[in-house]
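Quick one: structure for this chain?
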Amino acid sequence: MDERQKAVADKIIDYLSETLRLPKENIDYDIPLFGDGIGLDSVDSLEIIAGMNLLFGVTLIGVNDGVFANIRTLSEYIVNSPDYEEKS
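Got it. Here's what it folds into:
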């Protein structure tokens, strides 16, 4: 993971921790977001979709489920998106 992707991944972790009230120490780059990992559900996925659009300008509606596998895959998709733009 390069520095750009790591910065995005860290921002996603901060977002998930704050928005979904997840302890940061329970989130790493490779833990599955859904199922036996963090245990997020479909309502949480809507929160992630909205947040990634707000933070990075990237629309995740209709993307392959694999993008949501973990923080690493999500951040990789975002930095490689032509719509990626880090917003403050």
